Amino acid sequence: MLQSSFLHLPGIGETTERALWDQGVRHWDDLESMAGEVFGAKKAQKCLVGLEESRAALEAGELGFFGERLGNAHTWRMIPSCEDSIAYLDIETTGLGFPPVSHSTTVAVSFRGELFVEHEPQKKRALFEKLEREAKMWVTFNGLCFDLPFLRRELGLKFAQPHVDLRVWFNKHGLKGGLKKIQLGFPQVHQRSSMDIDGFDAVRLWRMHKRGVPGALETLMTYNAEDTIVLESLMCIAWQMERDRLTEFALPERAEAKLPVITTRVHESVYDLLRGRASWEVPDGW
User: Fold this and answer.
1) How far apart (Å, rounded) are the C-alpha atoms in residues 99 and 103?
2) pTM of whole model > 0.90?
């Protein structure tokens, strides 16, 4: 779909792109041969230069070139070009403020079929430095506004890869709300054991862990992991929506997401503490 996209070219917006598609101009090759017919000489020349730059960027693997130009609602078109190296990310934090007011607690990333959940600062940094080198694309839910800007400030890393924010993508299709609300709309998506735990609980779980409550950290890591592993399934659903919308392009079907295994669990005793059904006394000498 990337090579059927023209939004990144100078002077082309969604209306013009759709008009080109309706005229049968559906690939960079088509526009290259027909630019003089569909545009005036000046605009045609700019598009030809833009196409040359696009081919060079794609060949060099410089996908950030397109991510900056396509716009947040259209970075999904780059998914096939990043297929083998997509990092699905979700983070938990001590609060809603950005560093240094708040800091990350646990982070969860699904990458190349493996799930990473970390809470120690050095391990978190090592994980994201690895992903800076190896990941071609980030997929998040609301990470455009929160997760990635937060980590940029906390870690000082660029996170310059193309980024698909599922909140933005589903919004485009008229589906609004938080991650759990979107997930509940699709019963085929993995239903989590932590469905009744929310972001406020995640802050409390970290505080409980710092106070020494047994199982609090593992419960938080499980909640974080379950937020993360559903992202690929939801991405596949959003992709199918585009297949149904853009039938003229015969976009390929996506295989069902293979969820990585979560090795942690929600502790019932911790859940009871969250819901006020139990109490915990700080041990002597703590």
Assistant:
1) 6
2) yes
